[in-house]
Amino acid sequence: MEEARDNACNDMGKMLQFLLPVATQIQQDVIKAYGFSNDGEGVLKFARLIKSYESQDPEIASMSGKLKAMFLPPMTLPPHGAGTGGVAAS
């Protein structure tokens, strides 16, 4: 996982190319022990189930956020109002 993350260099396209397949394989190996099929469909069912529990359980929401942070590069937002064509308040 570390090697895949290093190869991706915080680039979203490279994350999808290098890190996502490794993460998916790990997830497939784990979820089969909990009754999910270890294929793409099982991963999607598991992800949907976790998503449905995020709003009900703060611990699941926190763990889900930490997991996503491992797979997604840090996102930087543009400065508020910059380049949006918005009108400044007077």
Number of strands: 0
Derived structural class: mainly alpha
Rg (C-alpha, Å): 17 Å
Order of helices and strands: HHHH
The structural domain count equals 1
Counted by DSSP, the helix tally is 4
Strand residue content? under 5%
Biggest sheet features = none
Task: Give an overview of the whole structure.
The protein has 90 residues and is an all-alpha fold. The protein has one domain. 62% of the residues lie in helices and 0% in strands. The protein has four helices and no strands. It has helices at residues 2-8, 12-31, 40-54, 58-71. Helix 2 crosses helix 3 (40-54). It is flat and about 40 Å long. The termini are far apart. It comes from Columba livia (Rock dove). Pfam families: P_C10 (PF14974).
Question: Helices, strands, pairings?
Answer:
Blueprint: H1 2-8, H2 12-31, H3 40-54, H4 58-71
Helix pairs in contact: 1-2, 2-3, 3-4
InterPro entries: P_C10
Organism: Columba livia (Rock dove)
Family: Belongs to the UPF0456 family.
Nutshell version of this structure?
The protein is mainly α.
List keywords for this structure.
90 residues, flat, mainly alpha, 0% strand
